[in-house]
From TrEMBL:
Gene: LOC114074772
Source organism superkingdom: Eukaryota
Protein name: Serine/threonine-protein phosphatase 7 long form homolog
InterPro entries registered for this protein in UniProt: AminoTfrase-like_pln_mobile (IPR019557), MAIN-like (IPR044824)
Transmembrane segments: none
Stretches assigned to the Aminotransferase-like plant mobile domain: 31-220
Species in which this protein is naturally found: Solanum pennellii
Length: 225
């Protein structure tokens, strides 16, 4: 499913020539499902150096920056730090927190350890809930927030901070979703970049054959080099 990114002016009262301006085409870029270029990603991993956190290319050293994260994906690069270890010490057990914040009950068989859950159990619950009772204008705020937290959990654990555990995501991100209005205060962009750096360092050493993290950032940024 495609969506249109249109960060143009809301009020065009004075911008009478906007329909002729070059920015009109740039602001109407269609963003669809990205096809990963495995060969490109593999090649760049082989050129990543953990010592410098840079890609060493024939013409010099290049890297992914915080500016790339902010400009390309609109993620915040300032604000409070995302510190998982601190959250881990404060909140337990995670299954109870999941049910309290979202209403989603997970079977023990869908858990792996104390904090990892199969992503299909979350997305399946979301699908069932929205089929029975879709979000409408009259939907209570509490229900909207519960559904929103589940979507955020899937985005954080399954997309932005993906791991190599196939279909498992961490419930520890729930610590940053309560209260829900505080989600925007965290520096998700800097955390995402640090996580991707760590994934690249891991993937470039020894016989490691997989890579995790937000691969769209890696692939889109590589196109500028």
């Amino acid at each position: 499913m495609e969506r249109v990114v249109n960060p143009g002016p809301i009020d065009r009262t004075l911008l009478l020539s906007q329909h002729e301006h070059k920015s009109e085409l740039l602001w109407k870029v269609c963003v669809g499902r990205m096809q990963y270029d495995r060969a490109l990603v593999t090649t760049m991993v082989e050129r990543w150096r953990p010592e410098t956190h840079c890609f060493h290319l024939p013409f010099g050293e290049v890297t992914i920056t915080l500016q790339d994260v902010q400009v390309l994906f609109g993620l915040r690069i300032d604000g409070d730090a995302v510190y998982i270890q601190d959250a881990t010490r404060k909140i337990r057990p995670w299954r109870t927190l999941l049910e309290t914040l979202t209403g989603c009950t997970i079977a023990p068989t869908d858990m792996d350890g104390a904090s990892r859950v199969r992503i299909h159990s979350i997305t399946g619950y979301l699908r069932d809930q929205l089929q029975v009772d879709p979000i409408r204008d009259a939907t209570p705020v509490e229900r909207v927030e519960r559904i929103a937290r589940l979507y955020m959990l899937v985005i954080l654990g399954g997309i932005l901070f993906s791991n190599t555990l196939e279909n498992l995501i961490s419930l520890q991100y729930l610590a940053f979703l309560d209260p829900i209005h505080d989600v925007g205060k965290y520096s998700w962009g800097s955390a995402l970049l640090a996580y991707l750096y760590r994934a690249l360092c891991r993937a470039s050493i020894g016989n490691v054959v997989d890579i995790c993290g937000f691969i769209p950032l890696l692939q889109v940024t590589l196109l500028k080099f």
